[in-house]
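Regression test attached.
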Amino acid sequence: MSLTQWLLTLASIGLVLLGLLLIGAIMSYGERRILALLQDRLGPNRAGPFGLLQPVADILKLVSKEAFVPPFADRMVYTVAPIIVPMTALLSFAVVPVSEDGWLADLNIALLYVLALSSLRVYGIMLGGWASNSKYSLLGGLRSAAQMISYELPMGLALVGVVMLSGSFSLREIVAAQELPFIVLQPLGFIIFLVSGIAETNRLPFDLPEAENELAAGYNTEYGGIKFAFFYLGEYLGVLLIAALVTVLFLGGWHGPWLPGVVWFALKTLALILLFFWLRTSLPRLRYDQLMDLGWKLMLPAALFNLLITAVLGLFWMKG
Amino acid sequence: MYEFIFYLSSVIAVIAAGAILVVRHPVHAALYLIVSLLALALLFFLLGAPLLAAFQVMLYAGAILVLFLFMMMVMNLRTERNLPLLLPANWGGMALLALLLWLVLLLLLSRSSLDMADNIMVIGPTAVGNALFGPYLVVVEAAAILLLAALVAALYLSRKGKR
């Protein structure tokens, strides 16, 4: 590749990065407003018109705070941990196809790449909890490790059905294979992937790692300022990533009548994000043993069953 | 550029592997191991084995070492420290042998790799799957049975109640 090509690649990466950070900021505002609406409150409405400048105010506040490292913390790990969480989410977006020719990279192992990065995400939370050297943080970190390992298995197994139907790991080819969205052919796989996706992002009702009423704030109890902002950003980017992945894998990505592909992709992703917010207001948090039981005794067998059914049906109906 | 990335990640892999011997805290050692594994995964990817690279990150870095760290956190190894590397009294001879072995390896590699480096063949996931469930099916099934036996044994050893 020549120098101009490298520069162009770098520029497009920078553009996508900026866009994603902007979306993350808007999501943090949107979530607070929508939660407030659903709970009959007002939410942040002071900064700017309708409170739209609230994310700017938040970021300014967090950046201008003292970058404090508790004296009892493990300095190096404490500093690195918050960077890992948004980083893994941002790297995953490289392979997500937004429209027919709107993608940054088309790996032939894209799906595995996304799963691998999501399995690295747990390090950020776990190490953040451990390096803070306090009991609430450590408990939050341990919980997150157990939770994310438990839910990665059904998540991966639910995706094998999609891979079988489309015959490829490449996200672009998976979308191209969906004349009929895979939610119709893989309803069980869709539900399993959505639930484990919520569990992977540590959102309610699966936010045991940061359960406020028992663990203070869980793994990020000792964090403040810009480091806390990184964890916060990582959570919203994780939600965005899971919503985008569900759109790509089960809802047919850019496919849809009349409107251009990007708009369909955005609409489907937005609907899923709203579903995430809605679930947060309506469902109570699970107990820890219920969470583990759900993962190992219900989701994993259901995912295996789904895999078996897909394989048997595929043997009869698909040739080649 | 690809060569630059290749050599950069090789250097990172070696340095991180060396650092495991030097650092005094077990959790830090595990973290360096993870860095080394990730750099190795990048090497696999650049050498034309994307599936292997993905599995390296997913299984080794993403699952097995998470469990390692989990155990370290549960056991709270904060007060225990890695002992400094103990060298046996007559380590000179061993070092000489290792050096010889390394030189032989270098010689062998320099012979064979010159003409291979230019045409790296990328082996996609489909090819790996076909090979695993074609000619190597018996080996795959044998490994699966072995793992199942190990699983049953682990369950037996960790059961509660009467021994």
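Expected vs. actual: identical. Chain A has two domains: 1-64, 65-317.
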